[in-house]
Give the backbone structure.
Amino acid sequence: METPSLRCGGRTLTLEIPRIMGILNVTPDSFSDGGRFVGKDKALAHVDHMLQAGADIIDIGGESTRPGAAAVPLQEELDRVIPVLEAIKERFDTIVSVDTSKATVMREAAASGAGMLNDVRALCEEGALAEAAESGLPVCIMHMQGQPRTMQLEPVYDEVVAEVIDFFKGRLQAAESSGIDVNQICIDPGFGFGKTLCHNVELAQNLGKMAAIAPVLTGLSRKRMIAEMLGDHSLDRTMGSVVAALQCVQNGASIVRVHDVHAMAQALTIWQAMRTG
Ligand code: 7PJ
């Protein structure tokens, strides 16, 4: 099989080795680095740090989707994301992904040099399929049960893995019908988005089945599931997150979305060296 690669605007990202997507939150309320990178200078300093540490993609998010979070108005999301995106593109030669569900944000992001779209609502919002098609950019479509405000109240599945895979098949068809090149799509099981710890673990164990459909992206960095597995919500989640992400790679993930790029990059370097000799 040919190694998949993503055409990210002017750059190509091959997926023959695992890739790191570094998280840049530009929300005032994000759970782990809330408010820290809202200022442009701080955001740029953090991007510089993540790129030096080995990030292949920078993922900017202006809508908090943590459990319980409220919706963000369009203009506010544009004001948070677009100036930072422009500043990054001006200063760094890297692939910038934009974490959004809104068609207008996708359009503005593509016009401002974004190299990828990352949609936790899998292009289900009005106009999103058409904007993604128009942009020609790679898209990560994520599975979520419910909406952020209520999704963790009582997630229920008969067969979590089969249901998530069926969802991806449906969204891939919808994307293709809208003119999106299916080779430009990554899929993400959406850890913590309407899932219990058991659901999350079962999905992580079955990433290979998803990787047979499309390249898999996973994000579990610093999430509650890490604290739950450690049995302690007061502990630092960095080490747990790195190990969990590495296990996702082992199980078939091509891209890992992380806060702690330096630690992740070290883990992947050692993993590669020990595998390939
Ligand atoms: C994810 C995301 C994820 C993708 C967030 C957080 C919450 N995008 N955006 N996958 N999570 N593709 O980072 O904890 O898991 S926001």
